[in-house]
Amino acid sequence: MHIVGNGFLARNLRPLAGRHPDTVALAAGVSWASGTLEKDFARERDLLADTARQCAGTGRRLLFFSTASAGLYGPLDGPAREDDPVLPATPYGAHKLAQEELLRASGADHLILRLSHLVGPGQPEHQLLPTLVRSLREGTVRIHRGATRDLIAVADVVDVIDRLLALPLRSGTVNVASGTAVPVEEIAGHLRRRMGVPAVTEYVDAGPVHPHTVSVDKLRALVPGTAPLGLDPDYPRRLLDGYLAEAEPWPARL
């Protein structure tokens, strides 16, 4: 597999570099969900268009990473499925949808993976867990009331990708998530207990919050038996414990 990019996901994909030689993984571009800079979006559009043209010409499959967040799917009454109508709620979500549509129209063989919130050592400092750990260490953590996140270990994502690329998939879209929406308040609370810090929680009312759960039915059907598919109710806690153990030697307080 040829990997385009050198960020968090690209680095974690490197063990697969010697596998799936028919695939190009485009692991570069905008990674900040609150990012709105058009120049950054335009740079990623150009990169995708150029990579898709090359793949169409060589017959290689293009692996593209989109988002399974509410920013893409918008408010839904149930778990977000790949065949649901998509109503982006943020500029980032609208950008990712436009990227998906560009790829589908390119003529290149492709697989689009809509990822939830990846967790692992070395992830960007602006993402949720590094931000929460930093805030807890500083003594005050601010949480949007009612917010949830679907957390999945980046190591589990790489395992899922390896299994998916072994299948004869030459088009399509798949959610890659745990399937469990965890309240951010619970995430912060568990981190606080594990770190043993007396941080204060401040709540922010950011308007109506629509619960967002990601359906992993399609993923389960394609790659049954993989670790992160929401079947283990203890998965979020183990993921958070693993993150802290790799990030810093916090005392094991439960």
The description of the largest β-sheet is:
5 strands, parallel
Low-confidence stretches: 250-254
This entry's quaternary arrangement is single chain
Strand order of the largest sheet: 1-2-3-4-9
Rg on CA atoms, Å = 18 Å
Number of domains: 1
CATH domain class: Alpha Beta
**How large is the share of residues in beta strands?**
15-25%
Number of helices, where a helix is a run of at least 4 consecutive DSSP H or I residues: 9
Number of strands: 11
Structure description:
By secondary structure, this protein is of the alpha/beta class. It has a single domain, classed as Rossmann fold (3-Layer(aba) Sandwich), CATH 3.40.50. The protein has helices at about 10-15, 40-60, 70-75, 90-105, 130-140, 155-165, 185-195, 215-220, 235-245, and strands at about 1-5, 25, 60-65, 110-115, 115-120, 140-145, 150, 150-155, 175, 180-185, 200-205. Strands 1-2-3-4-9 form a five-stranded parallel β-sheet, sandwiched between helices. It has a two-stranded parallel sheet with strand order 5-8. Strands 6-11 form a two-stranded parallel sheet. Helix 2 packs parallel to helix 4, helix 5 packs across helix 7 and helix 7 (about 185-195) crosses helix 9. The longest helix is centred in the N-terminal third of the chain and has 21 residues, at about 40-60. The radius of gyration is 18 Å and the shape is globular.
